[in-house]
Amino acid sequence: MLKTTTSVIEGKAVREYLGVVVGEAILGANVFKDIFGSIRDIVGGRSGSYEKEMGRARKIAFEDMEQEAIKLGANGIIGIDIDYEVVGAQGAMMMVSVSGTAVKL
After folding, report:
1. 3-state DSSP of 30-86
2. Which residues of the chain register pLDDT less than 70?
3. 3-class SS at 16?
4. What average pLDDT does the structure give for the chain?
């Protein structure tokens, strides 16, 4: 499935707009305790564990969004927006949310 943050795709015409599709993934507090508790993983101000978990959450969110688009009969998603939010009591969780418009190209 073709996915893009742009609203048009050069060389492709949108035949039908099928609606907004979303995907979300939330990382619990235990992930952050493990990540921030492991100082040895932090090199040069970056945490490999944290980046790996955020990448995993983003992948899950994209997969959920794509599955929703497939159910609508889409073969593309345009105008994708990716958001990261801290949620829960005292910011104990991180949410990755992706949304876009499912289309038939």
Report:
1. HHHHHHHHCHHHEECCEEHHHHHHHHHHHHHHHHHHHHHHHHCCCCEEEEEEEEEEE
2. 29-49, 90-91
3. strand
4. 84
Side-chain half-sphere of 78: how many Cα atoms within 13 Å?
Answer: 17
pTM of the model: 0.80
Task: State both tokens at 79.
Answer: 């105008």
Per DSSP, what are the bridge partners of residue 25?
96
Provide the 10 A C-beta neighbour count for residue 66: 19
> How far is residue 105's CA from residue 93's CA, in Å, rounded to a whole number?
37
Dump pLDDT digits (tens) for 54-84. Answer: 888 899 999 999 999 999 999 999 999 999 8
Which helix H or strand E contains 29, and what residues bound it? helix 29-37
Q: Contact 28/102 with Cβ under 8 angstroms? A: no
